[in-house]
Amino acid sequence: MEKYCTPEFEFKKVLILSNVTVFIICVLITWPSIILYALKGYRYLGIGGMSLLMGVFFMIFSVLFNYLSKTVTIYFDRKRMYVKDGDKEYTGYLKRDILGFYSYNYDERSSSFITIKIIFKNGKVINITDANISSKKDADKELMLKQFLLTAKRQLEFTFIKKNRRRSLLKIGAHWYSRDPNEKDSNANEADIV
């Protein structure tokens, strides 16, 4: 019997840290620097030094996020979703254990910024966020994200459920995809038959 699997979706230069962790890292770098500038730097550089400080912040964050970024690969077979984090081995997750995921609606929105948050029934979370904060659009990446969204919805039997208002305000993937609560779980039915 031939093994069934979808194509591999490779997300390059992504952070797998939670948004809270990224925020804490930014605060731990930014606030001490601003306080130090207010105490010592303003005297020598004046108000013009703030633009220099902002340039230094941008450079530090770019280098740090590029250092922390990895390549994440995802593919599906009949019963599992496989995730490979960097150089590690693939980890398989049963499809029925996935509660849902947040993402941009790549079907309707043309964006090449990666932001996907996969949530499992046991509370485990996989965050995949683009480390590149550039606003340039990449047509190949955009097409791959559309294909991933279609494949993930089909393989996991998910539909669009709702838009999260808070995530929408933060400009991160706000569309929640999950199983329709009105439909019976086909994975459970399949398990009963086997």
From TrEMBL:
Q: Which residues cross the membrane?
A: 20-39, 45-68
Q: Keywords assigned by UniProt?
A: Membrane, Transmembrane, Transmembrane helix
Recorded superkingdom: Bacteria
Sequence ranges assigned to domain PH in this UniProt record = 9-131
Question: Entry's InterPro entries?
Answer: PH_40
- Protein name as annotated: PH domain-containing protein
